[in-house]
Amino acid sequence: MALDENGKRIFKVVGTRPPRPDGIDKVTGRAMYGADATAPGMLQGHILRSPHAHARIKSIDTSEAEALSGVKAVVTAKDFGLPDDESVLDVQDNCMARDKALYDGHPVAAVAASSAAIAKKALKLIKVDYEILPHVTDVDEAMKPDAPIVQTGRAMEDLPDGLSENVTYHFEFGHGDMDAGFAKADKIIERSFKTAATHQGYIEPHACLASMNSDGKGELWCCTQGQFYVRELCADIMQMDASQLRVTASEIGGGFGGKTTVFIEPVALALSRKSGRPVKIVMTRDEVFRATGPTVSSSTDVKIGMTKDGRITAAHATLRYQGGAFPCGTVQFGAQSAFAAYDLEAVQTIGWSALTNRPKEAAYRAPGAPMAIYAVESVVDELCQELNLDPLDVRLKNAAQKGTKSSYGPTFDDIGLKATLDAAKAHPHYAAPLGPNQGRGLSCGFWFNFGGNTCVSMNLNFDGTVGITEGNPDIGGSRASISQMAAEELGIPYEKVRTIVADTNSIGHNDVTDGSRVTFAVGLATIKAAREAIKEMCTRVAKIWDIDADAVYWEDGYAKPSGPNAGTFDPMSLEEIAAISAQTGGPIAGHHEVNADGAGVSFGVHLVDVEVDPETGATTVLRYTVFQDAGKAIHPDYVEGQMQGGAVQGIGWALNEEYIYGEDGLLQNPSLLDYRIPVASDLPNIDTVILEIPNPGHPYGVRGVGETPIVPPLAAISNAVSRALDLRMFELPMSPPKILKALSSKV
Amino acid sequence: MRYAKPTTTAQAVSLLNEEQGISRILSGGTDVLVQIKAGMLEPDLIVDIKHLEGIKDITLEDGGYRIGAAVSGAQLGEHEGVAALWPGVVEGFELIGSTQVQGRATMAGNLCNGSPAADSVPGLITADAIARIEGPDGTRDCAIIDIPVSPGKISLAKGEFITSIYLPKRPERASDAYLRFIPRTEMDIAVVAAAVSLELDVDGVCIKARVSLGAVAPTVLLVETAADCIVGTKLDDAALEALSVACSAVCNPIDDKRGTIEFRTHTAGVLAKRAALIAYGRAGGQK
Q: Could you tell me which residues come within 8 angstroms of residue A322 by beta carbon, excluding any fewer than 6 positions away?
């Protein structure tokens, strides 16, 4: 659906900042999250997890647990079938280990009991006979030929000699003559980087309530970013028809991509089926860290050539990602993002993916992109230092724009990168003076964005209010922005519209809330649904006025005769039309179903000042400004919130967050105490500058904004720290011990 | 698990003494309840001491202050007398946890948790504070330095518990300071910590000092060799450098998720130097 022709449209509701519809419920504790669901006769489900990084499960004896009074069901992998689809089987195996425990925290059995205390006691009565196997958690180690094999039979086809069977995926792409490109360079820098796995860190742990009835129907309430995908996975795993499993998404306490799959839901369903009772499972924070998806960890080599005046002549990257114990394709996103900000004549990107004894990776906000762009933007920054060039000028000189053939293939349409860079250059932050031990860093960021399958239903109530039913859990304010777009299109106040998120049996399929897709795709479907409702309203009014339907048009919430020839009638408001709709043909509605394309890529630039304490290696973020192209900001508060939130998560990733594994392959820091997400007092105010370069693929020009802002912080902060120290950093997180160690080796 | 709420110390002592299984004292509960919830601890008996007489009182005694074992961080922080006399002790204690935790947490609890990273302990050690202990054999007083034994272990015998901590009086031109290193700005556990308490003469020369380090050994350390480096000086650069070196020299830390041996050893010296300067300024020393 193309940008409306009247691109200079003056919006009345879009672009304002009305109160969030979920705000009161959330601040008063009334909002219903995953753990708030209850049912009569409900049991408590608890999961027994592997205490080993890698072990063969020789046997599991559940008899004593089953005999304990109050225990109603115990399940192991034997209680699940074998789905045909390999990716579904991987999901199932991740929820309940079959032959081997593949990582510390991998579920091996589960209990449903009449109380949590009994369930926990029962877990201790389950006897698992493990044969401990050697393990590997580092991506570079996992690729070596003598590495412990995480899963046999999963190696890529035509595995090159000298690589481990853990290597599951490889590709290369690019364009141009690399040798000729590097030959033109005045300076070539080649560096290697590593990033640690980080967790999405949502506040709400996973929780669900499952009820399988004896007639084969099922109900599942859960905290998820996509109830339809949960239904699809669970129906496949439970071998039941999708229509028989109704999934209702709760309010969600953060997701960031990590709630786009299932961990406990199939287990709760299996326990419910076996016990004949509803079963609730709520994860602890320890379980969240050990057994839900962090993002990948990475090892990357980047080589870039540049002329003395700052033109990039050739660029190469090799990316190696591990996504835990199951095959994962995230490296593809990293590779495609790596050089997206640049207009390059010669570029080549190579990707590798390997299995390790870690939890199965789950999406995390622009999955794969931050670590790839961290490596690229670090080398670009070092080239700027070496050639004594302004880092913003160099990015402007090489920036991708409309018509640029991107490094990953497609040719860009209208994009806002140059405008964003110009805004950064003009901002007072860029010219502000720096003190001793301080440094300024910047980085570009990019994300593809996504549209996808979307259904929206809009109903006009007899009192002139409007109900919208959509199918994507609201993780970033989508109920507000959808209501705003509906109000805008219909010409009624925002307060007259209420948007709800429906269960899987109340509306058609919606893809997961991911890819920054909801404001774009659901918004687009909402506008279409509104236009359909408007058409119907005009038809009704034409009947009343006894004129042709196309002689009635809609403006500012009123049906009006289209001109003198149509006749003279008093305009009719939506409220008036809705009030008499029972007499003119029945209730009025609009709906729209689409597999939306044209999401429109998004670029951002982050500018950050840091100060590093040279005696302790501690980094303080002093000032931070985010510049991003939002296409059209529907609810600017939420857009700014996304920009700030992404920056904050990136700050954590750059400075302190990491999955720390011991020699034993066990996760050392599965708690919010030792997995160090920034706290509020660690952060400056994150300043934001929204740019609006309309997306040609959306009627109002919307681009998704949720993911791009986590992409630049890693490099921006590393560049700032490296300039503050006058010492290039190559590894994240840049925790104080690492900075101090780097400093001690400098002298 | 049984829960008991004695109203006399004698009852509390006898409950603790007679328990055959695992018993724990509940005061603020900011360690015990967290450990139970995390599945690290399954006590058979919880003895809630919050209802003992005087347990939540701060009283002036011989120019110093007796602080009841159930006095919270919030209560202590608002006590102007203690905050003026022992600012380093109060600031160490107040660094623990969040505002909510401060409403519950107690210094005696922090001490008895036995962590080498306990934020209130280095300050108490440099203050030469005394714990009053009730037990089957009656009442006894014990220097704070003698309470921790090893990580998670303390020297109290079966049936014993701390009822108060005494912070002694001190002369004019004396003060103290506590610094810890955490990678964040709050809500974290000390990776390394240092407390310094000192007294100055009228000329600003340090005449007495105590230096303590946290999270660099199995227990909080009292570092007399470091204190010696600043006694007799006005904390000039050479004295501070010697203090820093002396502190690093006694460190015997572990490598773990929170920090490396190298980092802790180095940073202990840095923090001691910085804490000494703050204490010096508070005591009226001019730099």
A: A138, A139, A142, A296, A297, A298, A353, A354, A355, A356, A358, A361
What CATH number corresponds to the domain at position A84?
A: 3.90.1170.50
Residue A229 and residue A326 in one domain: no
Q: Say whether both A116 and A241 belong to one domain.
A: yes
Neighbours of A387 (CB within 10 A): 16
Which residues share a beta bridge with A305?
A188, A314
CATH classification (class only), B188-282: alpha beta
Q: How is residue A108 written in tokens?
A: 């091996």
Structural domain span for residue A651:
297-449+600-746
Chain A contacts in chain B segment 239-278 (CB below 8 A): 256-260, 262-263, 266-267, 270
- Using a CB-CB distance cutoff of 8 angstroms, which residues of chain A are in contact with residue B192? none
CATH 3.30.465.10 residue window(s) in chain B: 51-167
| pLDDT, tens digit, 9 for 90 and up, residues A454-487 | 999 999 999 999 999 999 999 989 999 999 999 9
Q: Do A679 and B259 touch (CB under 8 A)?
A: no
Identity of the amino acid at A135? H
CB pairs under 8 A between A and B: 54
pLDDT in tens, B39-96: 889 999 999 999 999 999 999 999 999 999 999 999 999 999 999 999 999 999 999 9
Over 80: is that where the pLDDT of A6 sits?
no
Q: What is the CATH number of domain B51-167?
A: 3.30.465.10
Q: Which residues of chain B have pLDDT under 70?
A: none
All CATH 3.30.390.50 domain ranges of chain B, comma separated, are: 188-282
pLDDT band for position A7 (cuts 50, 70, 90): low
Domain boundary among A549, A569, A596: A596
B209: tokens are 């000092």
Residues A545 and A654 reside in one and the same domain: no
* Cβ-based interface (< 8 Å): residues of A facing B: 120, 286, 615-618, 655-656, 660, 668-669, 673-674, 676, 678-679, 681-682, 735-737, 740-741, 744
Cβ of B267 within 8 Å of Cβ of A615? The answer is: yes
Cα separation, A56 vs A76, whole angstroms: 14
User: Which tens digit of pLDDT belongs to each residue from A36-58?
Assistant: 999 999 999 999 999 999 999 99
